[in-house]
Amino acid sequence: MAIDSLPRTSGPDTSAAPARPRMTTRAKLILLVLCAAQFIVALDFSILNVALPVLGDDLGMGQADLQWAVTAFALPSGGFLLFFGRIADLYGRRKLFLTGLALFTVASVLATLAWDPASFLAGRALQGLGAAVIVPTGMSLLTTTFAEGPQRERALGISSTLMSLGFTIGMVLGGVMTDALGWRSTMGLLAVAGVGVLLAAPGLLTESRREGRPRLDVPGAVTVTGGLLALIYALSTAAQRGFGGVDVLLTLIAGVVLLVAFVVVESRAAEPLVSLPMLRRRTVAWGNLAGLTTFAMMTSVIFLLTLYLQEVLELSAVRTGLVFGVLGVFAALSGIAAPRIIARFGSRTTLVAGLLVQAGFTAALLGLGTTSGAWLALVAASLGSVGHLWAIVAYGVTATSGLPDGEQGLATGLVTSSQQVGITVGIPLLSALASAHIAARREAGADFASATLGGIKLGLGVDAAVVAAVAVLVAVGLRRTHAGR
Questions:
Q1: C-alpha torsion sign, points 118, 123, 127, 130
Q2: CA distances from 90 to 266, 433, 443 (A)
Q3: Which positions ≥6 away from 114 have C-beta within 8 Å?
Q4: Tens-digit pLDDT profile for residues 199-223
Q5: Distance (Å, rounded) from C-alpha 407 to C-alpha 10?
Q6: pLDDT digits 0-9 by tens, 256-294
Q7: CB neighbours (10 Å) of residue 15?
Q8: Helix (H) or strand (E) holding 253
Q9: Radius of gyration of the chain (CA)
Q10: What does pTM read for this prediction?
């Protein structure tokens, strides 16, 4: 189906949009503060990756325990997003945002000063909990501050670009800072940045909350948080040990059961945590599926290419980080352009096009070789990131448009849950797939480089196929939006 045949919605999807209203100085400062907070959280996802071996030696953490440096952050940051997104709607977004920022900053100080594995992992877990507060409250403050239309599209474009840049810049900074100043400097940077945002935010942000007497859906909060925690734990652990472990299987089953229970609870609750009618809106459902897919698959590409550049081509960590720095530049430029593309072609067309571009250039990476391929990796991944940023901005616009301010915290909670869960589950799934293939090839007598490349290509092939398939599903699903939600 041709992308241009997708119907356009009113508002941000009109090609004949009115002149773009100018942001006031105060609005620009608010956007700067909110984007800075999101950037710090994104930075935290990747800045430790290169530093893990040095960190492990310093704190006495074994190789098998290093995954907890990542998992301790991922569990609360992904598991509590929906919960805190709804709490912000009910009790006040500004208040919760500042609380989360303060918690994240203090946790970063603890991680910087950590004296043993337990204190470091406690800091990482508290960072993740702070991130679970910052991300949905920051996004809901953004969508309630900037009116639906060109201003919100521009704000979401800037925010999404900085989120993506934070992830890629973190890989560059992680290598450079660890080599020059040690791993503690990476956590110290987050603490300093957190203090800066915390000092600026109170004077700029105003309180917003849902009108009326709020009431929290406790059974819904317990089941969805428990389900997400169990699912993220299972997938993160499976990346290290495979899916055969008893704890992995039990928590995977528990996660699915709790999420099914959550749906049942929400269908009967008088004031549900998640409005099922909202989830039945095609823009919300298909937008979030696209968001989860683009994040899960693009972070997997970065992970697999890191493995390729360092293990197959034997590039240093710093040179590998610089490759992804170029990718970050392309991502920034495409994120800046995305709002204009949405204004011209519509969010749905831009979303599908972005997914197809991402899928196409991921497929191009199947041409990587054991002795050459750095330039192909650089060019294809950079161009793929262009489509990735189009998809990120477009899915954020699609999934939050047409909703009242009282539901923006929930809507942005869903958007950021898709993002964080995607980042968390994509790498473990494709890593486990690639690792199993590599192990099988090695047992069959293949040399290390060819076996590793084979596993990487398998992961990239599955990645490209998944993104392309979701692009088609989203195109068909959103095409029917005009017929009902």
A1: positive
A2: 17, 42, 56
A3: 59, 120, 123
A4: 988 888 877 666 655 567 788 878 8
A5: 20
A6: 999 899 888 888 877 777 777 777 778 888 888 998 999
A7: 10
A8: helix 246-268
A9: 21
A10: 0.72
